[in-house]
């Protein structure tokens, strides 16, 4: 909250400078501020003011701010500025940031960007754009420090000082051979602390973990989480070093994957657009598909109720407890599925662990089910005094059985989805509840038939 208040104070101050015509002071303040904060300030401005403020930025600052802007603002800026200004932005931006923008930009903007780049940069951009979407190749950058194993520390440090300002990171340097194959890494800290006549071969770590250009971004994110690295090398199928992925890009990937999983768990078709910028028709389209599937699958419950209609006619009071049984079962199933989906996302649970998971959830289900059953029969005895012991016992026993089965289903469905190469997040929330509802009714009515009639 404090940060938000400080940001609003900054925006109010910048607006005041603009309104009072203190453009020299405004330019000074903008160029001394954090680029991410300036990019956020652009969202507060009208389209005309955005262009005016953007032209107050220095070339370096403009490129950095541009990389932090949302896609709509980026498109407006590129549409509005001259070719020379576009060229300045592309020259100053890191290649991976340029590619990120071009992946989302409409064709006319891509053409404007590409025609304002030199032949070598255009070739690199086109190569990046041809990598599979959400792959390591589409995330990587080529701005990193390459060293040869025969170099001395003194020569390596000279090279880093000469070229380091153009690199996205210099904290880890990558060692290649004459065929550009990755053979080791050496941290900058090691170079700084070593003698100038030491060779890179003596200092480098040769047990390098790398990813292929075709590896999925989720797999890359898991490697970052496991090793807590700032950067990760990317190689081709022949082991040649072609780029690195930095942690700032992986933070975006983790946010994207988490959002996608949350949307799938809520029975939504994932969308890359921000909520307030997504048209109503698109939001409706993203929701109606799964709502239709769940509605149709929900007819299973109506079939079950229809099958046991004679039971309900004899003991009408049983119908009053249907929401309690199905609701408790749905909640129990959702708890289990959420835990399993999280465990699978973090790499803690694999398909081979299915039996362990089921056995654990059955035991958890028994403990939870017995506890809920006892609480329920006590509640019904005190509150529903006219229902009679056997109805109270039927409802409570059904609840215990449903909880056990719901937790079993809740843990099995995500594992089944992964074994079928589907996203486990699909087997959560609404879908689990729909399946469990039908099963819960069968259990409830079967027990009630045996004990009540």
From TrEMBL:
GO molecular function ontology, one term from the record: magnesium ion transmembrane transporter activity
Compartments it resides in: Cell membrane; Membrane
Keyword ATP-binding belongs to the record: no
Family, as annotated: Belongs to the SLC41A transporter family.
Cellular component aspect of the GO annotation: plasma membrane
Keywords, alphabetical: CBS domain, Cell membrane, Magnesium, Membrane, Metal-binding, Transmembrane, Transmembrane helix, Transport
Principal place of residence: membrane
PROSITE patterns assigned: CBS
Name the UniProt record assigns to this protein: Magnesium transporter MgtE
Record Pfam families: CBS, MgtE, MgtE_N
UniProt xrefs under CDD domains: CBS_pair_Mg_transporter
Domain CBS stretches: 140-202, 204-260
Record's subunit section: Homodimer.
Organism classification: Bacteria, Bacillati, Bacillota, Clostridia, Lachnospirales
Species this chain originates from: Anaerotignum propionicum DSM 1682
């Amino acid at each position: 909250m404090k940060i938000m208040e400080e940001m609003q104070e900054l925006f109010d101050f910048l607006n005041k400078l603009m309104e009072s015509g203190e453009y020299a002071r405004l330019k000074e303040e903008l160029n001394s501020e954090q680029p991410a904060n300036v990019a956020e300030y652009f969202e507060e401005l009208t389209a005309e003011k955005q262009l005016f403020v953007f032209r107050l930025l220095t070339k370096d600052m403009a490129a950095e701010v541009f990389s932090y802007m949302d896609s709509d603002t980026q498109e407006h800026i590129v549409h509005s500025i001259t070719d020379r200004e576009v060229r300045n932005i592309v020259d100053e931006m890191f290649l991976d940031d340029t590619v990120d923008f071009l992946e989302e930009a409409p064709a006319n903007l891509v053409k404007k960007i590409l025609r304002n780049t030199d032949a070598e940069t255009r070739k690199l951009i086109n190569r990046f754009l041809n990598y599979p979407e959400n792959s390591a190749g589409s995330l990587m950058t080529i701005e990193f420090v390459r060293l040869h194993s025969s170099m001395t520390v003194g020569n390596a440090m000279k090279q880093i000082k000469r070229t380091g300002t153009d690199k996205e990171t210099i904290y880890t340097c990558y060692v290649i051979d004459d065929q550009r194959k990755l053979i080791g890494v050496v941290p900058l800290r090691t170079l700084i602390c070593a003698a100038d006549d030491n060779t890179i071969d003596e200092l480098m770590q040769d047990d390098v973990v790398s990813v292929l250009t075709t590896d999925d971004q989720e797999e890359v994110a898991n490697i970052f989480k496991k090793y807590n690295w700032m950067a990760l090398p990317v190689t081709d199928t022949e082991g040649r070093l072609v780029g690195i992925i930095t942690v700032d890009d992986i933070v975006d990937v983790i946010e994207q994957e988490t959002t996608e999983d949350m949307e799938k768990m809520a029975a939504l078709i994932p969308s890359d657009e921000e909520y307030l910028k997504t048209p109503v028709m698109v939001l409706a389209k993203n929701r109606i598909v799964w709502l239709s599937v769940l509605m149709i699958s929900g007819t299973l419950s109506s079939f079950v109720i229809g099958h046991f209609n004679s039971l309900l006619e004899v003991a009408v009071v049983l119908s009053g407890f249907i929401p309690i049984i199905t609701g408790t079962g749905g909640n129990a199933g959702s708890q289990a599925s959420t835990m399993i989906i999280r465990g699978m996302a973090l790499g803690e649970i694999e398909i081979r662990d299915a039996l362990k998971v089921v056995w654990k959830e059955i035991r958890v289900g028994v403990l939870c089910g017995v506890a809920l059953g006892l609480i329920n029969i006590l509640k019904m005895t005190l509150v529903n005094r006219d229902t009679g012991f056997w109805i109270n016992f039927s409802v409570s026993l059904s609840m215990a059985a449903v909880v056990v089965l719901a937790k079993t289903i809740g843990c099995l469905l995500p594992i089944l989805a992964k074994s079928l190469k589907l996203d486990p997040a699909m087997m959560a929330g609404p879908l689990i509840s729909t399946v469990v509802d039908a099963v819960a009714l069968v259990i409830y009515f079967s027990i009630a038939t045996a004990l009540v009639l």
